[in-house]
Amino acid sequence: MAFIEKGQEIDIEQIKSATILSDQALQKKNQRDQELAAIIKGEDQRLLLVIGPCSSDNEEAVLEYARRLADLQQKVADKIFVVMRVYTAKPRTNGDGYKGLVHQPDTSKSPSLINGLKAVRQLHYRVITETGLTTADEMLYPSNLVLVDDLVSYHAVGARSVEDQEHRFVASGIDAPVGMKNPTSGNLGVMFNAVYAAQNKQIFLYHGQEVETLGNPLAHVILRGALDEYGKNKPNFYYENLLDVIKRYEDMKLSNPFIIIDTNHDNSGKQYLEQVRIIRQTLINRAWNEQIKKSVRGFMIESYLEDGRQNEPEVFGKSITDPCLGWDKTEQLIQEIYETLEKEA
């Protein structure tokens, strides 16, 4: 093997020990987790927003965003349920670039995985305990799940991971919602096979042990757009796309046909302002078609304190990965969604 040993051995329990939720914080988190499950099962008709920075690169900026989001959540809680994106691992197509807090907890210093794992827990812990929000993260590394499974309330499997068997099988053993994105090719069969695998029992090796899962009925789809053979964006949030996805849910007899629209990535072509238009169009489609209204009940939105992106972390609260909606536009957008839902009632 050509691996070079580097750093100290990871002690999972020691890393977790400093950031265990108190009984009070855990009780509040469990209540919100039950509400989230009810939304995905269709027992609660509120709209789900999984919203926050593309990547959580700066603890204080993320916490400032979380405080603002928590205040806004209270104002719209009867129509909208918010789970904050606290994404700490960034997939890279060719391995270059910023790989997230888990790799590089301080962007001014070299990568440090041990410190990164501690920083990941610390950030989720602080968002939960200081704001009362619950958090979402991308399950880029299934082996790291044991480090955050007591904190993270929503797990996403990205476009580059959704075909991987380990991601699918681990998702089947998670007692929390898992969103499966379509791959960059746009192949819906790949995404639905992932949901099927996650919703069913699996037996596999995990952390050196043979494990059996019960299946996760809260696994569902996230439509994030695709790229054609020429590298051009192919959005998949349109009316006909949604009807196709609903029919595939029915044909495969999957549980809880819940659909989230990812408003950035290949749906927007990473033109972050397009997220507003995509949400407006989807809300119109929901109002027009009862099937769509029943199934399309979530948006994934990339949003931070400042508009756009930057190459280096010079502006506080501005993304260093994908461009995001700034706070002012985010607040206006959530208020617009809320008012639209009020008119629907």
Automatic annotation (TrEMBL):
Enzyme Commission numbers on file: 2.5.1.54
Molecular-function GO terms, alphabetical: 3-deoxy-7-phosphoheptulonate synthase activity
Its biological purpose: Stereospecific condensation of phosphoenolpyruvate (PEP) and D-erythrose-4-phosphate (E4P) giving rise to 3-deoxy-D-arabino-heptulosonate-7-phosphate (DAHP).
Domain of life: Bacteria
InterPro entries documented for this protein: Aldolase_TIM, DAHP1/KDSA, DAHP_synth_1
Segment forming the signal sequence: none
Keyword Glycosyltransferase: no
Organism: Streptococcus cristatus
Keyword vocabulary terms for this entry: Amino-acid biosynthesis, Aromatic amino acid biosynthesis, Transferase
Name used for this protein in its record: Phospho-2-dehydro-3-deoxyheptonate aldolase
Enzyme class: transferase
PANTHER family noted in UniProt: PHOSPHO-2-DEHYDRO-3-DEOXYHEPTONATE ALDOLASE DAHP SYNTHETASE (PTHR21225), PHOSPHO-2-DEHYDRO-3-DEOXYHEPTONATE ALDOLASE, TYROSINE-INHIBITED (PTHR21225:SF12)
One of the record's GO cellular component terms: cytoplasm
Keyword Ribonucleoprotein attached: no
Family per record: Belongs to the class-I DAHP synthase family.
Biological or metabolic pathway of the protein: Metabolic intermediate biosynthesis; chorismate biosynthesis; chorismate from D-erythrose 4-phosphate and phosphoenolpyruvate: step 1/7
Residue span, DAHP synthetase I/KDSA domain: 34-333
Catalytic activity: D-erythrose 4-phosphate + phosphoenolpyruvate + H2O = 7-phospho-2-dehydro-3-deoxy-D-arabino-heptonate + phosphate
Gene Ontology BP annotations: amino acid biosynthetic process; aromatic amino acid family biosynthetic process; chorismate biosynthetic process
